[in-house]
């Protein structure tokens, strides 16, 4: 298993320990290089970050604000992730774990479908982790991946060849066009409106902002779709509608 050990991540998370107290929503952040993006959240018990390592695998890094912590586990609904102790710092302890491609769908589903997760540390002590904003952050990542032609594993959408890994998203989109065409039309209409005055080609940041501006029709689409399909697949289908129209 590969671990994220870059100094930049350690500095980012350790400095985040000094951030104002309070539960922060999850956010997506673009970067100067396409694969340098990350999702993060700064919260009372821990600072959390998800990004790609140099080998292209998703890694979650967690800065637990307890310098005496030696073990840590995260649970999002039914998905559990054991974190490995990377470094002890005066402000807390740095943990990290790679998320395998075969587990990524379950991880993203747990991350985006629940309101809260659980962080367990030494002695079974449990604290809650807010998952507010995870759906929007994943949506923004989907838009960013497509506009930067990033080949990310499912459930993230990108300009990758059609095949079994992409068929779930496309099946969900086909289902929605048949069962809930109005919800599809709402996202398409919002995509046209929110990108109509943007210069072409649309920059990744502009694409992200335009996509986030369509949060209401996206959430309505997701809720209808999720009655019959997995949540992560529904998010992928919603992104496909937006990006397909925005790229016209």
Can you put this structure into words, describing what you see?
- Keywords: Signal.
- The protein is of the alpha+beta class and 248 residues long.
- The chain folds into two domains: 126 residues, Immunoglobulin-like; 101 residues, no CATH class.
- Helix content is 42%, strand content 23%.
- It contains eight helices and nine strands.
- Strands 1-2-3-4-7-6-5-8-9 form a nine-stranded antiparallel β-sheet, with helices on both faces.
- Helix 4 crosses helix 8.
- The longest helix has 16 residues.
- The chain is globular and about 55 Å long.
- The N and C termini lie far apart (41 Å).
- The N terminus is likely disordered.
Short précis:
Helices cover 42% and strands 23% of the residues.
Termini separation: 41 Å
Helix content: 40-55%
Rounded to the nearest angstrom, the radius of gyration is: 18 Å
Low-confidence stretches: 1-23, 160-165
| Mean pLDDT, all residues | 81
Shape call: globular
* Class by alpha and beta content: alpha+beta
CATH superfamily of the largest domain: Invasion associated locus B (IalB) protein
Largest sheet: 9 strands, antiparallel
Oligomeric status: single chain
What is the CATH first-level class name of the largest domain? Mainly Beta
Keywords: Signal
Signal peptide: 1-19
């Amino acid at each position: 298993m590969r671990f994220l050990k870059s100094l930049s991540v350690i500095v980012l998370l350790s400095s985040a320990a000094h951030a104002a107290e309070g539960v922060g929503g999850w956010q997506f952040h673009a970067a100067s290089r396409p694969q340098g993006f990350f999702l993060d959240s700064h919260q009372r018990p821990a600072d959390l970050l998800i990004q790609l390592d140099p080998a292209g695998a998703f890694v979650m890094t967690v800065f637990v604000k307890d310098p005496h912590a030696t073990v840590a586990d995260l649970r999002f609904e039914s998905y559990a992730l054991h974190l490995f102790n990377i470094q002890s710092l005066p402000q807390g302890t740095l943990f990290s774990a790679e998320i395998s491609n075969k587990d990524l769908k379950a991880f993203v589903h747990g991350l985006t479908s629940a309101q809260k997760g659980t962080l367990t540390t030494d002695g079974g002590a449990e604290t809650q982790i807010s998952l507010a904003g995870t759906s929007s952050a994943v949506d923004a990542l989907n838009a960013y991946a497509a506009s930067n032609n990033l080949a990310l594993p499912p459930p993230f959408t990108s300009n990758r060849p059609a095949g079994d890994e992409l068929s779930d998203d496309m099946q969900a989109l086909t289902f929605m066009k048949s069962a809930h065409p109005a919800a599809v039309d709402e996202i398409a209409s919002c995509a046209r409106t929110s990108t109509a005055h943007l210069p072409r080609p649309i920059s990744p940041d502009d694409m992200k902002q335009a996509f986030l501006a369509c949060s209401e029709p996206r959430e309505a689409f997701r809720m209808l779709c999720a009655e019959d399909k997995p949540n992560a697949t529904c998010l992928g289908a919603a992104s496909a509608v937006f990006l397909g129209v925005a790229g016209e």
